[in-house]
Amino acid sequence: MNEHPDSLDLLLEPEDNERLRNTCGQLDEHLRQMERRLGIEISNRGNFFRLFGAPEAVRAGREVLQGLFRPVPTKCSVRRGCISSCRSRGSRPTSSRKSPEFRKQR
Asked: What is the pLDDT of residue 96?
């Protein structure tokens, strides 16, 4: 990171502990993965997030966090690797299929 990183404050609403837990991951593993992949720093307290880094990376981090925080359809779960998939495609996975980032639970 450069000496004078940009910062961005982000409030994910509504405050929903289950969605926050899914967004951040166990022990914040999803946040740490985003930090490594995007080269940013993320701090949070509840649903308030602060992102530090290069402007483009901070914007990408915001898009990924907002995408992960969106409601997940009932009986679906976020597929492992979704964060990598989201980042490599810009922000949200796109495909001819309806929802590639979700899979039905059995």
From this structure: 40
CA distance 50 to 39: 14
Domain boundaries, the chain: 6-104
For all residues of the chain together, what is the average pLDDT? 79
Judge contact between 104 and 76, C-beta under 8 A.
yes
**Burial category of 45 from C-beta neighbours within 10 Å (exposed 0-12, middle 13-18, buried 19 and up):** exposed
| CATH number listed for the domain at residues 6-104 | 3.30.1370.10
> Can you tell me the mean pLDDT for 52-63?
96
Record the pTM. 0.65
